[in-house]
Amino acid sequence: MSETSTPQESTGSQLNRSCESCRSLKVRCLPSPSTPNQCQRCAKGKRSCIFVAPQRRRPRKRTDSRVAQLEKEMRVMRSLLKNRIPEEDEDSEESEDENDELKSSARDQSANSDDLRYMDYSPELLTHGVSVPDFAFPAGVEEERQPVEDVIDRGILSIEDAEQLVAYYIHELASFFPLVVLPHTTTAVSLRATKPVLFLSVIAATAISVDAGLATVLNREMVRLYSERFFIEGEKSLELVQALLLMIIFYFPPASPLKLQFYQYTHIASTMALEIGLANKRRVKSDRRTAHDETLAEQARAVLGCYHLGSTVAMKTRRPNLLQFNDWMVECVRHLERSPHRTDQHLAIWFELQRITDEAMSSFGLDDTSTTSPLTESRVQAVLRWFDKRMETWKTNTRPEMLTVPLILEYRSTALAMYELGVGEGYRDPDALKKRYFTLPTPDEPDAQSPLSAIRIDINMKWMNAAHEMLDAILACSTDTMRKLPNLMYTRLAMAVTSLLKIHFSVRTGALGEVVTPETVNVHFYLDATANKLAEASGGGKYKIPSRWYQVIGVRGRDWYERLERRGEGPVESMAAPGSQGQTHSQAPGQSQETLNVQSMNTFPVSVPMVDPRDGYVAMSGTGMWPPMDAQGHNPSPQFFMGYQHSPHPASSQPMPPQFAYEPHRMPAPGTGMELDGWLPDGSIFGMPPLPEF
């Protein structure tokens, strides 16, 4: 009765003023006037009304008492451990070994954390990728993470054909852009076992110069494998950077211009190089200061290649370059200069052209991508004068045996790009896609240029002369060499053709026509000669890169030229026949040079002596400069191959499976429209922002 009694009935024991039901509901408990010993809510709900005594709370311990209790427990633990020491003397050695292992593993973990913090990776880590902690995955998940079958296992390509493709890349393609260099002893079996991603990238890049059908399949497999390794697995390694560099240099053109990935691929490689520490100085000191470090040379080629491609894209698209030049890159260049291999020395000389371009861009003020102010004539003249002197000094200081075909093309394209910037035509506006003819002016509208000054006329003449020299160098190339040229080189060709078309437009419609004649520009000859060269190199569509660029230059560029000529009621001649190409080429360039008499950079030596390979590496000096009037190709000395048997079609010894067979298509007739019905490169003739004219 004490628990159910009211406070008035149990005066001897103190009870709560609220019943348990009202306390749980947190409402006011009022006694019922009609029902004794119950509150109003309990009486209304017909339930028992219970009052209990309040629970006494235990006082909280003070801080000093807690500390005292912990100290007491610690003393008890020490005494227990002290009593157990004599019993564990026999196991002391084993415990010390375990402690040493724990300490060594802790040191390894701290070293790994330091590496992640300072971006200082060992060569093994750079080669095999950044390791992640081991987690306890289910058995099924572990099986899914195992490497899948590659193109060899699935029968897409035989190992014999893969051997031919790897050898073809090492001896005939790597010298065009020596950012990824493999020793001559490298085989497809060894490369596939040690670096499977780079192996697939090499054979996919080589297949572009062999057969379009095979190239389509291998490049699709390459993108799929790279996406799985990088985006899904999150791997980062030097191998992935090298594979991506090959994907950029030997870029496989997509079916739509909206799918161009130059800018994205370039900066994926740059950011990965930053994350794995390629762009930072190595903190590990080498005991052999004078010896050549091949691992460092491999990393130097990769980081310099990322910087070169990123700077080129940034210059054309006015977008920032994520990989900035620093003192470590200077050391990388010096290391390549001291290398005993000719490829490394060649790349160091090549990179000097990029530094000249960067300094000229800074002098123009174009390194700031947010600037929109036009350049004054005096500033442009001063910068171009300085640029001409630097380029002349570079050519004078370069040994004749180092002046190879790829280096000459890079020299010509550097001069062309800088003069184009001086004229004000170097920027590829992203909004140009909204225009009918993209970066080219509309043939039906007049030229809005103001009267040209003597400085502007001089810059335009140098720009035209640089375009002529660039096209002359490419037109002197043999058909076999044209099929080997990577897509990156073809962007230079399109840049030169675009420059001539713009100059021709200014001559026909603007003030430049008062001092320059259309015959001096000679755009008709260069359009015909270039289209014939590309049509011959495409092989009826078998070779992907020449075939694509034939569509741009031989079809769409020709259509723009004919519309401009119809506007001026000038003669529109048909495309020159392939047989008349050599005769026309021997006359027109000489005629334009004699008419112009523009002071330009001196011509290069007619030929370069062959040099034997060193240490099994591709001797870049074996690639001599073409004679001006002979259609010679990129053919090194026969003794250079060291047992390599050249095959014009390395992967076509056996027929391809039916699902991958490629049927050559007929080349379309010139003169079709400029509609957006096919692949258009952005930065050359028709202005897609993502690039081509590196």
Structural notes for this entry:
Residues 18-51 form the Zn(2)-C6 fungal-type domain. The protein is an all-alpha fold and 694 residues long. The chain folds into three domains: 1-53, no CATH class; 112-139 and 146-373, no CATH class; 404-641 and 668-694, no CATH class. The chain contains 24 helices and no strands. The chain is elongated.
Measured between the Cα atoms of the first and last residue, the distance is: 98 Å
Structural class: mainly alpha
Helix content: 40-55%
Round the Cα radius of gyration to an integer and report it.
Answer: 37 Å
The figure for the number of domains is: 3
Beta-sheet strand percentage? under 5%
Largest sheet: none
Please mark out the parts with pLDDT under 50 across 5 or more consecutive residues, or reply none: 1-12, 101-145, 570-644, 651-694
Query: What is the overall pLDDT average?
Result: 72
Written as H for each helix and E for each strand, in order along the chain, the element string is HHHHHHHHHHHHHHHHHHHHHHHH
Number of strands: 0
* Shape label: elongated
Number of helices: 24
Give descriptors for this structure.
694 residues; mainly alpha; 24 helices; elongated; disordered N terminus; disordered C terminus; DNA-binding; transcription cis-regulatory region binding; Zn(2)-C6 fungal-type domain-containing protein; Zn2-C6_fun-type_DNA-bd_sf
Write a concise synopsis of the structure shown.
The protein is an all-alpha fold and 694 residues long.
